[in-house]
């Protein structure tokens, strides 16, 4: 690649490879159709120009519908193929492998805050290990941001008030640009950073060098006690409150008769809007913690509750 | 000039609409659809150059990675101004309010629109909305982008947001009333014998546009009302901190704003469908398919809004459905392009400026449409959405497509509107300059977007600079090319040769009237007996 | 009389009347989409927070709401009467019953004003002073956000309707309308029925949740 005149972004995830083939396919089809349009237009314009007396203009096509059906059907079939191709990759982009490592991301004007399960924290930077799938659990403290890494060919809007996820499997070491892709106010263009993909050994060293006193779930455990969660949800609590061990990932029967999957977003909602996340069989006595906890504290609590064990699959 | 007469009409006597009253109040209080069209044309020209000046500042600033002359806050305000002004004060009203107003009654053989007073009211509302919007944008400091995404707009924007949003609300009334007027006029005021399948395609596409104006604009109005109320009260349905859901805003906003894209392109397709047969001297190929494809676009266009939200957090099942429908809505556009090409086959083609613009439209629209397929492809969209790829795509449709079509219409009907001929060589030169300037401006943006440069960036990493410089260079050519017609068209108003009734030898009722037409359009209501585009086939 | 009301773009008065009626139907279609957007926001919110919406809605004034529903339905009856009388060319009856319909609309607005005053005294105006104990306090406030918007917009429509009725009724009083031409009466009456129907939906969505069983 010519550095002065860049055409292609670097590719550094398993999806990027498939994406590049999709791009080539789209480009080929586009060039073919555009070429056809250009050739026909110039050919007709040249041959049937008004001062070309020699052109045969008789026997114009009167019955046009078989042409119409022809190009309508051809367009439709090509479009259907492209749809299926793109949808197939998209579906895989949205089903993380079960062994993916969860990393938490909180966006705020105008920075990305990253929290590793081991307690390592980064701002505007994300370090990940080569060939180790990563699942980002993201939320925003204020407005909508967009987590965008061109080298991974992935982008996800990060909304306030809920968790969204994005996963990738980095397959090439290096440093890649991270951008905010959703306009978020004055310094939107500055809200970026770098994703560093490291060899597994280097990554372990990096984790060790940046270790903090406690893991993320450890922070959550402290908070769980300090905020008084354990008064009801703790081991020796006398109040009848749902047990949290083994909650994560399983189904929860709800008070209004429905049911939900206890993913990160559900747990977050249950902490901040308990009225709308009532488990069946319990009195609706839990107060809302909205306004008392910031998103990073909620992330720590969620990580702690997840660390209490997942529901059996 | 060979006149392929559809109907025999007596040459109307007396004054033209231009000389029927010369006082200012005879213009400002007119009920004549042709004069109202002129009023619209003058106002949107002003707005076009205001929005264009903002575009010039944007491109100027992006020449260097750190920004050549604007700080980030000013830059954000400028692109907000550019978007708001271009969308609501130029693109949406452009062809419908000028040529739709001028031509619809003429093409239908009617003396005026169904509701002339409401038509004038629409113009006043439009001007009022322009004043309010510009006051808010220039006086206040609104930097949310034209999309007003929540919770940025209600929770974090300045108070002038309410002014801007209020201006767009008023603008919506103008759009709705215009759309309503056109729909009723097409239904009720067709001349005797002018059946639906004898209507020029311009009427079909104006009809489809008007239906969207009527049915989509109210949803925008109510969405903006909710934004303003949320901004004022500090509680509402969109901001999670206020108890709301920001995706609800996006659904409601795009329910209007995607169909609005078709408001901005369907009239252009109508114009091209008039011009291509006129300069190829041949009936439009596949008339029924071209006509119904406009209706199909209008209907399916209401069902694809979710493709703006593939990475916004909507469910993957919704994304699958919206992606599929987005491919479906591309089919009728493809049908149109192939039919225009087939119209050229065995034609007798001449290349005056309107035809050059129309051919440019077909090429640029095809590129815009094909890159739209890239964006409809789910996995591909995830990489390029919210980047310059999207910016390039919609500028190919709206500037390459709609603005080209607007210029095509301006030149094609200029003799009819003004009674004067424009200078042909200058016009051809401008058409070619616009085509090249446009491509140089916007093609590099496809590459920028694919490389990953996000849109709405006041500053950017240095590796993107080279393509930005290309784009800004193209923009300077484009700017010059857009100013050019302002001069030679103004010149032709005073010095141009007098135009005959039908300088192009075109079919269509509007060419049967004088140039410029008399106030009542036709002395006697015409009776239509032939299909449209009834150009005779030459002997083999 | 009928000569000067025919506008030049129409063939005859029947043509003009049909066109006006198509116009008002089109306008009603745009209104349906406008209010439909608000109703959609309401529906989405009620789906998210059913319990809080039910609790909040129980604080509305059912008596005034029901009385207003009855008033509007009665006024619609008078508007229908006006349409029928206009068809028969009874211009003076048209004027009289239209004035009655408008008067009922004014009474509606008066009751609404009383209700609004009570609401403000009960701190149901969204903003810092808002207070209403619901399962989710924010959701209760959002319900009243929608309540004020919907009923406020409806009241504005009603005012526009009353104004239009008064203008047309005044013209009817001067005997302008005939058997052949009375489109304005039809148009204003269709609009009035539409505003009435919107209220019936509003009544069900705003006053009735949380009051069953």
Descriptive key words:
heterotrimer; B: 540 residues; mainly alpha; globular; disordered N terminus; C: 213 residues; 78% helix
List the SSEs and their pairings.
The complex is a heterotrimer of chains A (313), B (540) and C (213).
Chain A: H1 14-47, H2 65-93, E1 101-108, E2 111-115, E3 121-123, E4 125-129, E5 134-140, E6 145-149, E7 154-158, E8 164-168, E9 174-180, E10 193-198, H3 200-209, H4 216-226, H5 230-233, E11 251-253, E12 259-261, H6 264-272, H7 295-307
Parallel strand pairs in A: 1-5, 4-10
Antiparallel strand pairs in A: 1-2, 2-3, 5-8, 6-7, 6-9, 9-10, 11-12
Helix pairs in contact in A: 1-2, 4-7, 6-7
Chain B: H1 24-28, H2 33-61, H3 72-91, H4 94-108, H5 116-139, H6 152-156, H7 160-188, H8 201-233, H9 246-280, H10 287-300, H11 316-344, H12 353-376, H13 378-384, H14 388-412, H15 414-418, H16 424-451, H17 465-495
Helix pairs in contact in B: 2-3, 2-4, 2-5, 2-17, 3-5, 4-7, 4-8, 5-7, 7-8, 8-9, 8-10, 9-10, 9-11, 9-12, 9-14, 10-11, 11-12, 12-14, 12-16, 14-16, 16-17
Chain C: H1 2-5, H2 13-48, H3 50-57, H4 62-87, H5 91-121, H6 137-173, H7 183-207
Helix pairs in contact in C: 2-3, 2-6, 2-7, 3-6, 4-5, 4-7, 5-6, 6-7
What percentage of residues of chain C falls in helices of 4 or more residues?
A: over 70%
The quaternary structure here is heterotrimer
- Class per helix and strand makeup of chain B: mainly alpha
Radius of gyration of chain B: 23 Å
In short:
The complex is a heterotrimer of chains A (313), B (540) and C (213). Chain A is α+β, with helices and mostly antiparallel strands.
Describe the protein in words:
The complex is a heterotrimer of chains A (313), B (540) and C (213). Chain A has seven helices and twelve strands. Chain A is α+β, with helices and mostly antiparallel strands. In chain A, strands 3-2-1-5-8 form a five-stranded mixed β-sheet, with helices on one face. The relative contact order of chain B is 0.13. The termini of chain C are far apart. The model of chain C has no long low-confidence stretch (mean pLDDT 90). Chains in contact: A-B, A-C, B-C.
């Amino acid at each position: 690649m010519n550095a002065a005149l860049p055409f292609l972004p670097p590719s550094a995830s398993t999806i990027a490879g498939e994406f590049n083939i999709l791009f080539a396919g789209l480009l080929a089809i586009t060039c073919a159709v555009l070429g056809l349009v250009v050739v026909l237009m110039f050919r007709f314009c040249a041959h049937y120009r008004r001062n070309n007396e020699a052109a045969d203009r008789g026997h114009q096509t009167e019955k046009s519908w078989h042409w119409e059906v022809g190009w309508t059907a051809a367009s439709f079939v090509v479009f259907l193929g492209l749809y299926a191709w793109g949808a197939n990759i998209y579906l895989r982009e949205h089903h993380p492998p079960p062994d993916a490592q969860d990393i938490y991301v909180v966006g705020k004007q105008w920075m990305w805050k990253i929290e590793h399960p081991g307690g390592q924290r980064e701002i505007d930077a994300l370090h990940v290990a080569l060939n180790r799938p990563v699942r980002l659990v993201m939320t925003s403290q204020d407005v909508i941001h967009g987590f965008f890494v061109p080298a991974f060919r992935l982008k996800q809007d990060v909304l306030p008030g809920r968790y969204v996820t994005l996963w990738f499997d980095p397959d090439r070491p290096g440093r890649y640009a991270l951008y905010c892709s959703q306009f978020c106010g004055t310094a939107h263009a500055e809200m970026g950073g770098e994703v560093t993909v490291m060899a597994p050994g280097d990554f372990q060293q990096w984790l060790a060098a940046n270790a903090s006193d406690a893991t993320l779930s450890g922070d959550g455990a402290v908070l769980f006690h300090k905020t008084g969660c354990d008064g009801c949800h703790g081991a020796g609590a006398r109040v009848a409150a749902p047990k949290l061990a083994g909650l994560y990932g399983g189904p929860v029967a709800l008070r209004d008769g429905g049911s939900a999957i206890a993913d990160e977003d559900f747990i977050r909602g249950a902490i901040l809007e308990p009225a709308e996340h009532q488990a069946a069989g319990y009195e609706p006595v839990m107060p809302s913690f909205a306004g008392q906890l910031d998103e990073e504290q909620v992330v720590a609590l969620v990580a702690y509750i997840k660390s209490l064990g997942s529901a059996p699959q | 000039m060979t006149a392929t007469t559809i109907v025999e009409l007596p040459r109307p006597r007396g004054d033209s609409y231009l000389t029927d009253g010369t006082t200012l109040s005879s213009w400002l209080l007119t009920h004549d659809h042709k004069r109202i069209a002129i009023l619209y044309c003058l106002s949107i020209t002003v707005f076009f150059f205001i929005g264009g000046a903002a575009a010039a500042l944007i491109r100027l600033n992006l020449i260097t990675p750190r920004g050549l002359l604007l700080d980030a806050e000013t830059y954000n305000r400028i692109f907000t101004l550019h978007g708001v002004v271009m969308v609501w004060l130029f693109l949406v009203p452009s062809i419908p309010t000028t040529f739709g107003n001028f031509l619809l009654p003429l093409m239908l053989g009617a003396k005026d629109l169904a509701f002339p007073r409401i038509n004038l009211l629409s113009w006043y509302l439009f001007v009022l909305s322009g004043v309010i919007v510009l006051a808010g944008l220039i006086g206040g400091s609104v930097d949310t982008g034209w999309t007003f995404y929540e919770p940025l707009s209600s929770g974090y924007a300045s108070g002038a947001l309410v002014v801007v949003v209020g201006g767009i609300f008023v603008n919506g009334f103008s759009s709705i009333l215009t759309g309503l007027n056109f729909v009723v006029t097409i239904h009720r005021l067709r001349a005797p014998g002018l059946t639906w399948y004898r209507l020029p395609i311009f009427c079909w596409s104006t009809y489809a546009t008007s239906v969207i104006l009527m049915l989509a604009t109210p949803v925008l109005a109510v969405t903006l009302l909710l934004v303003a109320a949320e901004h004022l009260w500090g509680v509402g349905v969109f901001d999670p901190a206020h108890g709301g859901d920001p995706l609800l805003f996006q659904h409601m906003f795009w329910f209007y704003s995607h169909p609005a894209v078709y408001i901005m392109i369907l009239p252009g397709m109508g114009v091209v469908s008039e011009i291509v047969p006129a300069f190829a001297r041949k009936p439009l190929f596949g008339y029924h398919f071209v006509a119904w494809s406009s209706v199909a676009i209008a209907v399916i266009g209401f069902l694809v809004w979710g493709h703006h939200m593939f990475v916004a957090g909507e469910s993957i099942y919704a994304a699958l459905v919206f992606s599929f429908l987005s491919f479906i809505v591309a089919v009728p556009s493809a049908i149109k392009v192939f039919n225009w090409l087939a119209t050229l086959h065995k034609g007798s083609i001449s290349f005056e400026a309107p035809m050059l613009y129309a051919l440019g439209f077909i090429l640029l629209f095809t590129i815009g449409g094909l890159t739209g397929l890239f964006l409809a492809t789910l996995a591909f969209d995830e990489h390029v959405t919210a980047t310059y790829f999207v910016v390039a795509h919609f500028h190919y449709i709206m500037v390459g497509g709609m603005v080209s079509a607007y210029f095509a219409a301006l030149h094609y009907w200029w003799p009819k509107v003004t009674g004067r001929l424009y200078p042909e060589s200058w016009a051809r030169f401008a058409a070619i300059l616009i085509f090249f300037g446009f491509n140089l401006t916007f093609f590099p943006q496809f590459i920028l977007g694919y490389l990953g440069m996000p849109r709405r960036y006041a500053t950017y990493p240095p590796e993107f600079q080279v393509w930005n410089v290309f784009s800004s260079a193209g923009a300077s050519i484009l700017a010059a090319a857009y100013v050019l017609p302002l001069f030679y068209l103004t010149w032709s108003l005073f010095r141009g040769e007098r135009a005959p009734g039908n300088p192009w030898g075109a079919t269509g009722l509007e060419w049967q009237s004088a140039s410029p037409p008399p106030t009542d359009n036709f002395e006697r209501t015409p009776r239509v007996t032939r299909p449209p585009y009834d150009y005779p086939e030459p002997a083999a | 009389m009928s000569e000067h009301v025919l506008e030049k773009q129409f063939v005859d008065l029947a043509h003009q009347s049909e066109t006006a009626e198509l116009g008002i139907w089109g306008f009603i279609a745009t209104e349906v989409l406008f209010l439909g957007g608000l109703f959609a926001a309401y529906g989405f919110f009620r789906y998210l927070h059913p319990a809080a919406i039910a609790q909040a809605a129980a604080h509305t004034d059912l008596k005034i709401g029901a009385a207003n529903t009855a008033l509007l339905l009665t006024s619609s009856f008078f508007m229908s009467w006006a349409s029928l009388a206009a068809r028969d060319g009874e211009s003076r009856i048209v004027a009289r019953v239209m004035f009655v319909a408008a008067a009922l609309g004014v009474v509606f607005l008066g009751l609404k004003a009383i209700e609004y005053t009570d609401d403000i005294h009960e701190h149901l105006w969204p903003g810092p002073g808002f207070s209403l104990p619901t399962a989710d306090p924010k959701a209760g406030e959002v319900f009243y956000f929608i309540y004020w918007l919907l009923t406020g917009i409806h009241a504005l429509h009603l005012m526009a309707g009353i104004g239009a009725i008064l203008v047309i009724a005044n013209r009817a009083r001067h005997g302008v309308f005939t058997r052949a031409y009375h489109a304005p009466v039809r148009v204003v009456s269709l609009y009035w029925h539409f505003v009435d129907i919107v209220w019936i939906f509003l009544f069900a969505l705003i006053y009735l949740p949380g009051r069953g069983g």
